[in-house]
Amino acid sequence: MRTLDATSAPPEDLVGRYDIVHIRLFLSVIRDGNPLPFLDHCLKFSSQEVISNGREYDSHRFKVLCAEGCQAPNIEQYIRRVRDDMSTQWIRELPTLFKDKGLEILAVDSRDKHEWQRRSYMETISVLVEEYAAHFSDLHEASGQGDVERQLARGIYAEVKQGSSFTQGHQVVVGRKGVHVEREG
């Protein structure tokens, strides 16, 4: 087992070594809105006949859900922060990006979380915000930022207990390498 940097080319001994490469949640390493260098590196791991699967959450498809007349300011604040921190416009372009890299598209699935998943997912989000506060904000950010994060986590959890949540669309793209792409013009 090795730890590799997704922003760098793979070591030579791993190039073409794997039949299947599963790429998931690489939105967390892409900060400039350009996934192409990362995608190039990941595809180098694959042998000629590979299926690459990208599943990414699209923060621009977030939508707050709550009962009529209800408000969820903490959930809305979390969504704004995620949208500000990540450029995810490219996620909707994954099928085109895969095609441009010579992959044959086998499947594209774009959907929101199922209703039965939302509560547990939202409870997980509030725990993640608390962990973020403890392990990042307290150590690396301005004094008091961890307390702000913990207050946000408590607010999210309280809104979830009242039935609020948000949808978070995701997209899965499955492609096969080794297909020659004809270019027009």
Summarize the structure.
With 185 residues, this protein is of the alpha+beta class.
Tags for this model:
two-stranded antiparallel ribbon, four-stranded mixed β-sheet, 185 residues
Give your account of this protein's structure:
There is one protein chain. With 185 residues, this protein is an alpha+beta fold. The chain contains five helices and six strands, in the order βαββααβααββ. The strands form two sheets. Strands 1-2-6-4 form a four-stranded mixed β-sheet. Helix 2 (73-85) packs across helix 5 (145-161).
Strands, count = 6
State the strand order across the main sheet: 1-2-6-4
Q: What is the 3D form?
A: globular
**Structural class determined from secondary elements:** alpha+beta
Overall pLDDT: 79
Fraction of residues in β-strands:
15-25%
Q: Specify the number of helices.
A: 5
List unreliable stretches of 5+ residues. Answer: none
Write down the secondary-structure element order. Answer: EHEEHHEHHEE
Task: Please report the distance between the alpha carbons of the first and last residues.
Answer: 45 Å
Radius of gyration: 19 Å
Q: What's the story with the biggest beta sheet?
A: 4 strands, mixed
Helix content: 25-40%
Topology:
Layout: E1 18-24, H1 36-44, E2 46-57, E3 63-65, H2 73-85, H3 94-100, E4 104-111, H4 115-140, H5 145-161, E5 165-167, E6 170-176
Parallel strand pairs: 1-2
Antiparallel strand pairs: 2-6, 3-5, 4-6
Helix pairs in contact: 2-5, 4-5
